[in-house]
Amino acid sequence: MTMQFTVAIDGPAAAGKGTISKAVAKDFGFAHLDTGLLYRAVGFKTLQLEPDAITTDVAVDLAKCLTPEDLTNDSLRTGDVAQAASRVAVIPEVRDVLLEFQRTFAIRDGGAVLDGRDIGTVICPSADVKMFVTASAEVRAERRFLELSAKGHDVERAGVLADVIARDKRDSERETAPLVAAEDAVIIDTSDLTIEDAIIAANKVVASVFNGK
Known about the structure:
5 strands; single chain; Rossmann fold; alpha/beta; about 210 residues
């Protein structure tokens, strides 16, 4: 007997959706895909090129050539790569290349959790569970600053906050698949939550639907 159950978790950078998604997947025995890594991997590849050489066709070719190994690169978590990912994510042709991979993953047997920015609105509009994980820009910037500092990156709080705000603006205002909560998504604001409490809240949302299947 096969079982398909899709959990779509969206939200802005550093809101906690990645950590929550991994925990939900583990607790329910589902597979997990951080879809942002797909765009980060393409963005990382563009950083290896001269800025003038990054055309739509080049970005599309880079997306088509992604391998599983590209998603394991430790450098994908830097601020520069995050900004590059946001830039390539506004290119409709790049999104088209990565769309089918995500949708196929979402309906795999055994259940799947996907986190990103347009999972519940574009990739999996019929997902069994939709959540939108958010937090204030200031809280998210502080989390990202501490994360990058711990990894030895030379960053300043003001710069990280500016990057977070700029990315939020670009992601929410892009014409193709803007960052927005699905109408039927459950909102989880982690600004004043510990990660443990946020995971408990998310698990309750999933359980309320999954246990009724």
